[in-house]
Specification:
This protein is 42% helix and 14% strand. It is an alpha/beta fold. Strands 2-1-3-4 form a four-stranded parallel β-sheet, with helices on both faces. Strand 3 (84-87), helix 4 and strand 4 (108-110) form a beta-alpha-beta unit. Bound molecules: 4-nitrophenyl phosphate (4NP). 4-nitrophenyl phosphate binds at residues 8-14, 45-46, 123, 125.
C-alpha cells in the first residue's frame, strides 16, 4: 500500500484536485487497492470548508468523480502515516517542513518535481484559472505514477 498526501495552502483548490485526479488515474490503471490517497492544507484558512466550486466545475467537466470532503490541516503525525507528501509549490514545502519537522525520509517534494519540467503549480484561488491548474495536476500525477512504476514501487 502506497500512501500519498497531496498538500496545498487551503486544501480547497489544488490538493483536492490532485487527490481526485490521482484516485481516478490509479483506478483506471487497476491499482486502486494499492493506494491510500488524501489531501490537506498547510493553513487553517479554509478549515472545514468543501472543495472550491472552480475545482468542482473543472472535475465535473473532465468526468473525474469526487466524494464529499472538508478541508483539514496537515498534522505532524501525517509524516509517519504517509509515504509521499506532495506539495503544489515551493511555499508549501517550507510550510510542510514547519509542520512535520525534518524530512529525514525524503518524503516531501513538489508534485511537479517528478515531471521533466519541475515547477510550481499556480494557485487558482488567486489566478482564477482552473484549466491550467488541472493540466499541471494531470501532468504531475502521470509523472509521479511513472516514477512509482519505474522504481518498482507498484
Ligand atoms: P489552494 O487555494 O491552496 O489551492 O486550496 C487557496 C485557497 C484558499 C486560500 C488560499 C489558497 N486562502 O487564503 O483562504
Amino acid at each position: 500500500m502506497i500512501k500519498v498526501m497531496f498538500v496545498c495552502l487551503g486544501n480547497i483548490c489544488r490538493s483536492p484536485m490532485a487527490e481526485f485526479v490521482f484516485k481516478d488515474y490509479v483506478r483506471k490503471q487497476g491499482k486502486e487497492n494499492e493506494f491510500y490517497i488524501e489531501s490537506s492544507a498547510t493553513s487553517n484558512e479554509e478549515y472545514g470548508n468543501p472543495v472550491h466550486r472552480g475545482t468542482v466545475r473543472k472535475l465535473n467537466e473532465e468526468g473525474i468523480p469526487m466524494t464529499p470532503r472538508f478541508a483539514r490541516k496537515l498534522k505532524r503525525e501525517d509524516y509517519q502515516k504517509f509515504d509521499f507528501i506532495l506539495g503544489m509549490e515551493e511555499r508549501n514545502i517550507d510550510s510542510i517542513l514547519g509542520i512535520v519537522g525534518d524530512d529525514s525520509d525524503n518524503k516531501v517534494c513538489r508534485l511537479l518535481d517528478y515531471s521533466d519540467n519541475p515547477r510550481d503549480i499556480a494557485d487558482p484561488w488567486y489566478t482564477g484559472n482552473f484549466d491550467i491548474t488541472y493540466d499541471d495536476v494531470v501532468e504531475g500525477c502521470k509523472f509521479f505514477y511513472n516514477y512509482l512504476v519505474g522504481n518498482k514501487l507498484i
